[in-house]
Design brief:
Layout (H helix, E strand, L loop, with lengths): L1 H7 L11 H20 L2 E4 L10 H10 L1 E5 L2 H18 L5 H13 L3 H14 L4 H13 L3 H14 L3 H24 L3 H14 L4 H13 L3 H14 L4 H13 L3 H14 L4 H14 L2 H13 L3 H11 L1
Antiparallel strand pairs: 1-2
Length: 320
Amino acid sequence: MEEFAEDSDQYLDKNPDLKILRGFIYIDRGDIVKRRAESNSKVISTVAKNAVPLLTSVIDSLATALEKPREYTDEEKENVRKAIELYGRALTFGENASFYEDRAYAYDILKNTSAQLADFKRAIELYPIDPNYYEGCARAYFDMGNYQESLKNAEMSDRLGFDPESLQQWRKWAAAKLIYSGYQSYMDKNYDEALRVINIAVLFKQDFPETYYWRGRVSTMQGREDLAIEDFEQAIKINPDYFDAYHNLGYLYGKGNQLQKSLEYFNKALEINPAHTKALLDRSYTYHLLGNEKKSEEDLKKSCDLGYEQACRIAGITKQ
């Protein structure tokens, strides 16, 4: 690249823009330094599966969605700072959208979000049809908590997208992070805040079943069963094997005295997970209300045999 840039110097009087070729020398050097840092990075997860008391099926998908790509050592961060300096030198030879993009990714590694956003915005000004620049802005705005601007840029990237997979994975990550924040508010019984955050999550990823599941849980706690049922059913449309959504629907229809429908949903839940002791106990009670004592006792006994103490206590009481 260096020899190519030197050869182009003879034409600078005819085309001064050729001086930007010297900028690519520093971009190449910066990329080499940054890649060296990235090659030694570690994969981490934002959510430890055994540290968060979520339902197992839900935390598994959230932990996967919230997986962060890299964590850097001090030495690796110093390499990235050197890369940023080299990118800055490249820009002294002329503005180029890809130069700003490369530096923005380096700023992202150092968590300098404002500088990252400024570089992606300048890249858009120079070349407004590249979806990666809008995705970069979406990520930066999200990290700054400006979800409205983040969504606007994500949607623009979606419309322009040549490789939508990266954007969709990030949108899933963003939705999962918001759900986890909503879950924390849910556990603190701050249901209004939980609902506010999860509603934003739905906008980021409308085909992510966890958003509807957790919004359904919040609505249930707020006594808005009709809305909860709609969300649990939406979660099932997206994921027909969503045990927890079926289980909650069984509970809600039973609470509304729609016992046959309640039974149907408990049956479906137990088709997916036949050994779920709480679902067995819940179906046992539904059978009891329907007057089918034989089936009720069968489910109660199975739940107890599988070690559910509450079922054993009830079974003991019924025998007296």
